[in-house]
Amino acid sequence: MSAPDSAGRPLRVIVGYDGSPSAVNAIEAAATLVPSATASVLHLWEPPFTSPELRQRLAGRASGLQQLGELLETEGRAEAERLAGNGVKLARAAGWEAEPMVKRAFGGDGYQFARTAEEMDADLVVVGTRGLGGVRAALGSVSELVVHVSPVPVLVVPYPLTTSEWAAATSGPVLVGTDGSAGAARAIDSAAALFPSRRQLLVAVAEPGPGPGPTAPDGAELLTVPCSGRPGSARATASTLAETAANRGAAVVVVGSRGRSASRELLVGSVPRALLHCAHRPVLVVPRSPVGTA
């Protein structure tokens, strides 16, 4: 999938919601960036989902292990549906049309997000992170895995955002990292489709070596910036993009998941992954084309 193709319909968004402040933050930021979307608020739950206190109460009501398991299943699903309903209220208050979606998880939540996006023909998946104290752990698990396996673009929203970052999300440009590759071209197309009302700024990080750098499509603004660290380093490239985004007040940073060649791939695990850890603003990672497509 090279770019969302909504054919005049509202964009279809799947947003992960678990009731955390990070998830609330992700809904608000995504609705600011992509207004008027239709959202499915997805909550994945894995029995027994209930709290230790509730498990203790249910144990007192159960006549045996089988009944306890049934009670835990019932209460766990009810709690999951309540959480998804709360997420829907938040999404609707933010301006989206929204509906709840509850699915049982059997491990591999990132894969389940990706499968759901494919099944629903979604244009975008939205996930949050929990900042330095809790999940950059989620970046090592669900968020990174969703980015790695999703067939559609994934918007990762960091938590928390500062006042200036919220202001940028409201009115700032879309910064797209480019290296002249097919992956960068897909990122440019997806950015235009998902954020059509935003000014687009293409940024190329200067790298050593012969040959011309990337060029901009007609009418696009291209900025070439020196690398702030060791040229060719994924971490330095990501840090340069993040610094440029902050200096330019960018609303979101967009990158493709694959670069120019096998030896210079922008795979998750390199530039996009490093960017998720250092860009204190939403990051959109656009996947490479599925096998068999251009």
Write the layout of secondary structure elements.
Elements: E1 12-16, H1 21-33, E2 38-45, H2 52-61, H3 65-93, E3 97-104, H4 109-119, E4 124-128, H5 131-134, H6 142-149, E5 154-157, H7 163-171, E6 174-177, H8 182-194, E7 200-205, E8 221-225, H9 234-247, E9 252-256, H10 271-278, E10 283-286
Parallel strand pairs: 1-2, 1-4, 2-3, 4-5, 6-7, 6-9, 7-8, 9-10
Antiparallel strand pairs: 5-10
Helix pairs in contact: 4-6, 9-10
Domain UspA: 12-158, 238-287
Protein name: Nucleotide-binding universal stress protein, UspA family
Family: Belongs to the universal stress protein A family.
Strand content: 15-25%
Regarding CATH, which class of the largest domain? Alpha Beta
Number of strands: 10
* Topology order in helix (H) and strand (E) letters: EHEHHEHEHHEHEHEEHEHE
Number of separate helices? 10
Shape: elongated
Domains (count): 2
CATH topology of the largest domain: Rossmann fold
Helix content: 40-55%
Largest sheet: 10 strands, mixed
Q: What is the CA-CA span between the terminal residues?
A: 9 Å
Global mean pLDDT: 84
What's the CATH H-level superfamily name of the largest domain? HUPs
Residue runs with pLDDT of under 50 for 5 or more positions: 131-140, 259-269, 290-294
- At CATH level 2, the architecture of the largest domain is 3-Layer(aba) Sandwich
Strand order of the largest sheet: 3-2-1-4-5-10-9-6-7-8
| Coarse structural class | alpha/beta
**Rg value:** 20 Å
Protein name: Nucleotide-binding universal stress protein, UspA family
InterPro entries: Rossmann-like_a/b/a_fold, Universal_stress_UspA, UspA
Family: Belongs to the universal stress protein A family.
Domain UspA: 12-158, 238-287
